[in-house]
Amino acid sequence: MNEYELQVYDEIVEWKRGLLKRSSLISRLSKKAQTRVNSLIPEKAHEVITSSIKQMVKATLTGSDFTTKRSQSTGLSLKERDAVFAEKMTFYRRTATVEGAGTGAGGILLGLADFPLLLSIKMKLLFEAASIYGYDTSKYEERLFILHIFQLAFSSDEKRRQVLPIIENWDQYKEELQDMDWREFQQEYRDHIDFVKMLQLVPGVGAAIGAYANYNLLDALGVTAKNAYRLRLIKSVPPVQ
């Protein structure tokens, strides 16, 4: 490993430590409030969310709705790949923020439209990340890896502890994993984001909440994607002699 790769290794160790920490007290208490908020939201909203997630999972696995160039970083060092990804993250965070503010300001109908739009932005980011870090998303196993990154970013403490070893040892697990349980996938995602995203449907504050929520959700996903791919690349680097 060179100096930058050693630095990245230390960052990955810290990232993994953070993932395995128990959620904050506020996050745990918000689960109770979330249950109350959910009961006040029209059933149509819940149907839109569930359907959007199901279709997103199917589209990701078939590769029909998300396309990107073959590896955009042939010959680049890890440091250079990180720099390219940082530029893409700026674009995707800005896009998600504008989209969240616009749909949040539009009331419940546009608020409902935000869920599939945001999912699309997130998945395009993940396909972009795979390409930047040198992985071929035309392969089914790489699309399945993308869904595991998504799940790692937006799941409960318990589920993250189950998914992280799969991410860390992908070459070992990829032959065993043939599909994704979309029902579990969508429930984990909903439980993770429902509270703040449902508040986006509240008149008067929807725009501010939508912009803030989307920025932070894209940022969290970007950090997870970057470190998941860095982890795979670092594991392939010969140790220092």
TrEMBL record:
InterPro entries recorded: EcsC (IPR024787)
Protein name as it appears in the record: EcsC family protein
Organism: Cytobacillus gottheilii
Organism lineage string: Bacteria, Bacillati, Bacillota, Bacilli, Bacillales
